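Much of what follows relies on a compact textual record of a protein's fold. Here is one such record, which you should read through line by line:
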Amino acid sequence: MAERPKLVLAMRPDILDLVLPAPLRARLDALADVHPAPVTDWDDAGAALAAADVLFTGWGSPVLDTAALERAPRLAAVIHAAGSVKGHVRPEVWQRGVAVSSAADANAAPVIEFTLATVWLAARRTLGAAAGYTGGQLPGHQERTGADGATVGVIGASRIGRGVIARLTASPAGFRVLLADPYVPAAEADRLGVELVGPDELFRRSDVVTVHAPDLPETHHLVDARRLALLRDGAAVVNTARGRLVDTEALTRECAAGRLDAYLDVTEPEPLPAGHPLHLLPNVLLTPHIAGCQGTEVRRLGAYAVDEVERWVRGEPLLGAVLADDLARIA
């Protein structure tokens, strides 16, 4: 470009140094004229938004809707240094011809690893063993506490779902992997090394169900009371996707009865209110939405997004490009 692009940072100030530590900030400054202060309200952006060619967004970014676009006549790209863009990018952004990119690929890796570790814990009935050990009991080797040969049902061949599948099918444990996803044809399932089944069959046959579908109206409470009842006694539900996919109260009843275990990084509502039964059950592990990039890992998102800015400046395709049609099926 003949003129250096103008770039506005739109994210919470408290995460800026995590997303853009000094070396990354120096790279970004070399690529564009960066407005010095991060923005969380377009009313505070003033002339910076009017001159912006690029918005570098993150957690806490204000919503980019028609009103905001009218104040940003030069805007050509939104580069998101986090996962989903659904919370702040509206369809009119694509209608205006603005390029949109997400660092979801960079965020996927820790979620995949977190999920894989959790599936191993679930397959080995770890919570029950831990509760027994607290009471002075040791599990016998004859008990079903091993992971080898366990059947894992994956709901959704999303970016993270596919990563989990790849790790499961390569595992020395010999996991049997079932997949329920209405958009995956049989030939693709064969390439993934999974057995394609309907969701009800997946629940009937699985020792562990791990959820990786997007949060859409049609997936709300996809894991409901009826499907939970299909799971065999001692099975486990793992959710590192979105809380709304699981009927929390139905799962609570099953766990309170001691029939199922649950490993939940996300819940509905989030956070769960103090005193909710899931906080107290020994067969439930609750973590506070930490599967994605945390702490020093957040710089991975910033690095990915800075790379995207560099590609955009050079006129190259964006690796994390998000298209308008993707909105209907992404998290």
